[in-house]
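Milestone M4 deliverable, item 7.
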Amino acid sequence: MAEDHMRYDILAQEALRGVVRKVLAEVAKTGLPGEHHFFISFVTRAPGVRLSEKLLGQYDKEMTIVIQNQYWDLKVNETGFEVGLSFDGIPETLVVPFSAVKGFFDPSVQFGLQFDPATAPGAAAVEADADAEVEATAEAGAVEAGEEKPGEKVVSLDAFRKKP
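Output delivered:
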């Protein structure tokens, strides 16, 4: 089989990220139409992601946010989006580049997209940094036996799908 010098996999992912960009830009202008709402998963340590230290401590690798009833100041540009959300009653502003997005799902119409952030520019550097950080933490003995580590909270999107 011939080698793919065009990198169609990367081109397709970038085109589909454009769908997310266009949808969010429209919502930023006019609000959410009908029953539409979004679950957006992203890599929290990807280049350009900005969120509080508290949230980063809770969601060390990945986070899923919901754009539905209580969000504010949604701003979208060519490279990413910014949105205000409340976490445990505390308002936060999140900045997420489209290259960090792993998934986009609109359960109102059963539409979803999955992305591979490893194909995004700069992803290898983030992975290397994360690996080095894990090794340094282990060597320093920061994780004691029996200590509960704050982990990611995984939400199955199946729970939000309409049943036939």
